[in-house]
Fold each of these.
Amino acid sequence: MIPRTAYLLYPEWQGYGVANDVHRGAVAMARTLFPTVDFTTVDSPLDETLTVRDGVLGLDSIAARFRATLAALRERAPDQIVTIGGTCGVEAAPIAYLNERFDGDLAVVWFDAHGDLNSPETSPSGHFHGMVLRTLAGEGPRDYVDAIRRPLQPRQIVLAGTRDLDSRESTYIREHGIAVVDPDALRDPDAVTTAIRARGFTNVYLHLDLDCFRPDEIPDTLMRTPHGPAFDEVVAAFASLRGNFHVAGWSLVECVERGGRSIERLKEIVQGPA
């Protein structure tokens, strides 16, 4: 059966809240990589004054947008979601929906230099894009958690290419047995596939923050982080995952457009999952 795919352009920058460059980056990715696709666009104003509530910068703005997007996905009921987003925070709605849709049979592969496993209590910045995965696991702002019907279980999470963790994120990972495939391990294209197969999942969601890559290969990202995996290694990992599991959704996030060189190269990623 051909999946009903929702294409979501979610250029929210407010989950970072300091600058809106990722808004333009998301729009540029959508236009360049999917020139013929009619995206459903989540309205995210370029200019907005943000305040802190419950330890989260811009919570009133981002939580309202999350709830509206999640409600729209539940109504439309797609089988697959492709998300082109601003910050990592946009992942809350598509992943929360898909975890409901597949009744917990969903491995979330977090290709990202960072764990995004802080909470409002542990975050050093108050930026939601560093809390989204912890929120999806049921520990985050009530405005989000109360709307998530099926939180992720730690065994559903696989961090890939991760190398920049806060100390309390490391503690959380260790205490909850979250799988981590570090950049060196990604030299084996089947490393992530093996980790997921061991947990028995049949569906995967592939989150790709551009800072997963080495910044000399993909420089146009919000949080440049050295010592990442090579671009071709991530492409190979994607290919392995696509060949072994049903891709329920995937994303590209945190692009800061600096001339488009990175976006053009991302076509190698897009040609697979889409």
Amino acid sequence: MADGPLPAGDFSAWLAGMQRALREESESDVPCDGCTACCRSSQFVHIAPDETETLASIPAELLFPAPRRPKGNVLLGYDEEGRCPMLGEGGCSIYEHRPKACRTYDCRVLPAAGVEIEDEDQAAIARRARRWAFGHPTERDSAEHDAVRAAARFVRDHGDQLPDGSAPATATHRAVLAVRLHELFLGRDDARPEPEAVRVVLTSRPARRG
């Protein structure tokens, strides 16, 4: 069914892969099956200056300086319909040279963290995210899923304990922060880690924000 559940994989296996992607050790392996919701949802895509093949594949007039980023960091915008200008009829026209932000993007992070997108421009992503269904074959899968969701609630309710510049600007960023912080919530009852522990996690090789 077009609106039925989609297998997201066993939770712990997905989480390990997501963490590797955030550390830029691998790409996200998302079973998109032709879905291009993230390419049609009015998203700005960050491209770093070291992404030379990507920059060479995109017309310069489609890029503009990224606010509050060092010189050389740019954003790729979207057209009047909210579509990435590199999205063609057959999918991404620069797929082999797509930005790192696209290589690591995984909308399964939203249901993993129990976070909903409320932006109407990203309704297609929200619909897709709601369909993902994780498997929990072991106690570890369940415990880690609970920890990620507890971390997401912490980020939502205790933003004052986040380091400067770490407050999430989007629902997706809040979900990503929850993945990065989840180990602080494994087996905890109070769900209130020490501020210093939070700072250490979020300031140690922070993942890029897409």
Amino acid sequence: MTDSHVYMGGQSNATSLTLLEKVKVKDQSSWERLVTLYTPFVYYRCRKAGLQRADAADVGQEVFVTVARKIADFHRDRPGDSFRRWLGAITRSKILDAFRRMNNEHRQAGGLGANPRLDQLIACESDVEELEEDKEADRIIYRRAIELIYAEFAPLTWKAFWHVAVEGEHPRDVAADLGMSVNAVYLAKSRICRRLKEEFAGLIQEDPL
């Protein structure tokens, strides 16, 4: 979904910066990583709104072009501000635009009446409450973040983390199954959670699974 012409600028070597901070200083690889992180969320929102697959993909392209243009304007100054909420508002706007285009094309082809889904979306002036209550969206983003750092850790570390953090198993049981000490299991979870927080601070909900 990413536009290869977006963010063709200097690279940032400040590895201590979070992903969002790197994107704001126009680091191309970080921009691509951000798009990879949030593409499933945008697609999910589009499909949930009623768009077909091809239309959802087109809207996703429009969303990230807008994000690239406006990312410098995103700030978390007030309680409740979040990147997902900001991105969700952009996505909703593009979804509405897509339904309006479809309605216009339908009318030009001789059809009558508006798409009922468009009427429903317009009637709901904001889907902020829906976004805040949408735990599935949080899980989608969190799981993609996990995928992005998977290669940085040994398989056994991942197994311990996954069983405890994702499957909700007790560390003592996981330690017995994997032949690890209980302390090693806790350490595995801590290391991966810390890595997620370091890179994706401000972008993902902590432990939403």
Amino acid sequence: MADHSLPYEVNCSILFTELPLLERPAAAHAAGFDAVEFWWPFATATPSGTEVDAFVGAVTDAGVRLVGLNFAAGDMPAGDRGLVSWPGRETEFRASVDVACSIGERLGVRGFNALYGLRLDTASPEQQDAVADANLAYAAAAAERVDAVVLLEPVSGAARYPLLTAEDVVAVIERVEQQSGARNLRLLCDLYHLAVNGDDLERAIATHAPRVGHVQIADAPGRHEPGTGQLAIGRYLSQLEAAGYSGGVSLEYNPSTTTEAGLCWLPPERRHARDGVVRTPGGSR
């Protein structure tokens, strides 16, 4: 991979899945990582205090930092891809925002990922976007109170997910900024999703690098570890760094074999992070 100095982190919702969820932070630490992220780690948007404490304890006891956490996104295994734009589920989404930000306050989380959600037959795109605008403004205000950003990402493999390119995401961010005054919404630059969706990665980075708050990687095709596909991941990471991005790079791929075997591409000395998600435009902290 091309040379860059961006720190790597590991997504424990897609890696180390050989283990129960609460054992994965310790496994990540044993593999040399000191920063992790998770998708929504609970079965519902309103986990009990005991469940939250167990999750926080697993991260703390492992000696790693939680740098990223998703808000509740519905039933992901069944095909849901977020609640942000889902009319009638505002209370559920906002409850998860409150839980996530309470975890963020305890653990120093600096980035929360808000999956936009699929287009529905029961509401018009305009109605859904209005719900999304209000929900994102709520999430941004809650995250600001714990010195964090809200991340919005393009997604591939879901036919009715409307945000496919960096331009799509930035358009939503700008719309919410204009309406609410929020200043802590950021683009989650997932190189895999952007590539699979046919976005021009070089152009997207050159145009939108000041908006990037976090980066995730997987090779394409296949969504496995770097080196298993044809995506020039190192080149794009170098371009991001040259453009001013200084946050983390999360490994968010399906290991082609086991997690440990799939980490052979990354030398142990490169598995240490710094401060995680970028909080302000332009790559500054």
